[in-house]
Amino acid sequence: FFFFFFFQAEDGIRDLRSLVGSEMCIRDRYQRRVRGARYSTMVSTRRRKLATPEPKVPDPEEEDEDEEEELMDDEFSGAEETDEDGEQESDEEEGGDAKTGWMEDAEDEEDEEEELEIERKSRELEEQAEIEQDEAEQELEQQLREQAAEVLPDAEEDGPGLQGGPQDVTGVKDRIQNLVNILDDFKKLRAEGKSRQDYLSQLAKDLSLYYSYSDILVDAILHLFSAAEALELFQANEVERPLTIRVNTLKARRRDVAQALINRGVNLDPLAKWSKVGLRVVDSPVPIGATPEYLAGHYILQSASSFLPCIALSPQPGEKVLDMAAAPGGKTCYLAALMKNTGTLFANDFKKDRVTGLVANIHRLGVRNAIVLNHDGRQFPKVMGGFDRILLDAPCTGTGVIAKDQSAKQKLEVEVKRCAHLQRELLLAAIDSIDVNSTSGYIVYSTCSLLVEENEAVLNYALENRCVKLVDTGLEFGVPGRTKYKDKRFHPSVSLSRRYYPHVHNMDGFFVSKLKKYANGKPKVVEAKAGAEVGAKKEGSKKRKKEEDSNPGKKKSKPQEEQRQGQAQTNPNTNKDSSNKKKKKKNKKKA
Question: Most CB within 10 Å of its CB: which of 417, 428, 438, 474?
């Protein structure tokens, strides 16, 4: 039986030699052959054990004959026997030797040689692949180092005519990518004698040249993000955001509107889990802004980011709510839908031309609890107050919606400062218009800008000058606000605000924050500072009077006083200031 399997093994060896090229096939057949040899030895040992008679009293002559027979059996069958006379260990060693006996060695000798040769070849291939990979990495690093040395222009080349490098678009684009790669792994790839600031300044020039941004905006973005993420933002601003619509729950349900548009061939998807009224338009054979459903007021075209301030404000039915900068009316109508057309909603806008579009949207969407106003928001506390909640979507530079308005790329520092000053005044006016005794007393401040000067800096100013605190917006996602920017440090609670980026959230850049008013007037710290300043002024005036009394020679002569009075009369600005002060005093008395 064993020889039968041995001959089968020889046949298998011939087959293996014909299939040397396939390593998996060789290993598979080798394992089968080993299993077959083991199975044959196991069967032979069982048969021999069954055939052996019961042990008898050993004779010395018979013991010699038995030993010779056992040796013969071990050589040809590889069997293992046990003796009752203490020969068990020697038999086990002989059985182990039998398994690897000359017959098994003879049948596996060539296989082992073939297997070792294949393994050696595979090992050599793996080592060669590792060597090639190391050489490729070293070559890539060397190339990047050479590029790092060449990517920055020399001092002679960096002139006003060249603007720091080639003017062709492809060259600038390639250099931007090289600069980003170097800044990501600066320690390994930087050129000798070059600092990080050198690469950042060159990257800022190239980004400004290639994407047509102003220098101040590029500098702000590079301070907000890493080089790689900043490049992603610049690229995202060149692509339009998905078209979204908001279903007007005052007139229809999202399911019905979606089905009606699908019947017209429009491909729709739900906007996101955080919105139950939003739909994203993937493709449409008909104009979305001219369907019968749109004209009937079942939905409105509205960006996804403009949903967020209304969700954060969360007005309740029956409350008194103000939308301080309401035009064109998308947020106002969403607030009315959240209030279920109850309570009172005041929609104000400073520009009269924009009020007409606001009124049209209010009528089309069926809003019945809105009152439209045309006032300057900075003067609103004098016009009206006592609101429960206020939404201030402040006018800004629009650096978050560059994909819609490419003109926002060229905003100057003067425009940024002007917007920031206006935003501070509007936010303080909104805080003053809130009723402290109200159960809510919330203000939501939002902008479509990415600049810190228009967002966190304005919030920090409001926290220092009014009795308000920042609270959680209630939004499920978003990047926390920044408490550090350049050399500025803001209040830790500013991190409760939320930022939204085009390259991260696939929507327009937006900033949302929520404040809670807890008292009227200014904080005690500000009042204490103001009181200290007034006290210091009074003390200074008293000291001057004492000095004048003690030194009468230092008093001003009458001719000098007359000359100054004459100058004040000839100067019209001083007269105007005095008349304005008198008018203000009269108005205060009337109020």
Answer: 428
Catalytic residue, chosen from 310, 396, 419, 448, is 448
Helix (H, G, I), strand (E, B) or coil at 438: coil
How far is residue 211 from each of residues 203, 229, 342, 559, measured CA to CA in Å? 12, 15, 48, 66
Query: Higher pLDDT residue, 484 or 17?
Result: 484
180 with 231: CB under 8 angstroms?
yes
CB atoms within 10 A of CB 331: 25
Beta bridge partners of 499: 479, 511
Q: 222-244: per-residue pLDDT in tens?
A: 999 999 999 999 999 999 999 99
| CA 502 remoteness from chain centre | 9
Cα-based distances in Å from 498 to 144, 250, 315: 38, 29, 19
Does 106 score more than 90 pLDDT? no
The contacts of residue 202 (CB under 8 Å, 6+ apart) are: 151, 152, 153, 164, 165, 175, 179
What sign does the dihedral 157-163-164-165 (CA atoms) show? Answer: negative
Choose among 339, 359, 340: nearest CA to 349.
359
DSSP strand pairing (320-323 vs 344-348): parallel
Question: How many Cβ atoms are within 10 Å of 287's Cβ, its own excluded?
Answer: 8
Residue 333 is a catalytic residue: no
**Strands 442-447 and 389-393, bridge-based pairing:** parallel
Q: How many CA atoms lie within 13 A of 544 on its CB side?
A: 8
Rounded CA-CA distance 189/180 in Å is 11
pLDDT, tens digit, 9 for 90 and up, residues 559-574: 444 444 444 444 444 4
Instruction: Tell me: pLDDT of 494 over 50.
Output: yes
Reported residue count of the chain is: 591
Note if the pTM is more than 0.70.
no
The angle at the Cα of 21, spanning 19 to 27, to the nearest 5 degrees, equals 65
Query: In angstroms, rounded to a whole number, what is the distance separating the alpha carbons of residues 500 and 22?
Result: 56
Cβ pair 299, 260 in contact under 8 A: no
In this structure, what token pair is assigned to residue 305? 């980011």
Nearest residue to 446 via CA among 561, 560, 283, 306: 306
Residue 549 CA neighbour count, 13 Å, CB half:
6
Directed axis angle between helix 23-51 and helix 60-77, to 10°? Answer: 160
Q: How many angstroms from the chain centroid is the CA of residue 379?
A: 38
Work out the percent of the chain whose per-residue pLDDT is above 90.
53
Q: How far from 30 is each of 110, 112, 117, 329, CA to CA, in Å? A: 11, 9, 14, 79
pLDDT tens per residue, range 150-185: 667 654 445 443 344 445 677 888 889 989 988 988
CA distance 29 to 201: 66
Rounded Cα distance between 220 and 316, Å, is 38
Residues 244, 289: Cα–Cα separation, whole Å: 11
Burial class (CB in 10 A: 0-12, 13-18, 19+), 115: middle
Name 398's Cβ contacts closer than 8 Å, sequence gap at least 6: 405, 408, 411, 448, 449
Residue 500 backbone phi and psi in degrees, to 5: -135, 130
Q: What is the mean pLDDT of residues 464-483?
A: 95
